[in-house]
Amino acid sequence: MPRARVAILSSAVCPRHSSTCTKTFCCSWRLQTVLQCQVSWTANLVSLYIYSERS
After folding, report:
1. What's the Cα-to-Cα distance from 14 to each of 3, 25, 34, 46, rounded to whole Å?
2. Whole-prediction pTM value?
3. Is the pLDDT of residue 36 over 90?
4. 25 confidence band (pLDDT: 50, 70, 90)
5. DSSP codes of every residue in the chain
């Protein structure tokens, strides 16, 4: 199975996500941007967190 290079999530995995965080997720992924998008299940805007794989 191929490895993912980009992950788009609707919730923050680590609220203190940073380059110095030692949690497994933070060691593997870098937050690129946060977008506000409309989705079908709510009238409110939803945050989408876009992460890329760390090299």
Report:
1. 21, 8, 14, 17
2. 0.77
3. yes
4. confident
5. -PPPSEEEESS-S-TT--TT--SHHHHHEEEEEEEEEEETTEEEEEEEEEEEE--
Task: State the first-to-last Cα distance of the chain, in angstroms, to the nearest integer.
Answer: 19
C-beta of residue 33 within 8 angstroms of C-beta of residue 50: yes
CA-based R_g, the chain, Å: 13
Q: Which of 53, 55, 40, 31 is nearest to 11 (CA)?
A: 31
Whole-angstrom Cα distance, residue 19 to residue 2? 25
29-34: long-range contacts (C-beta < 8 A, 24 or more apart)?
A: 29/53, 29/54, 30/54
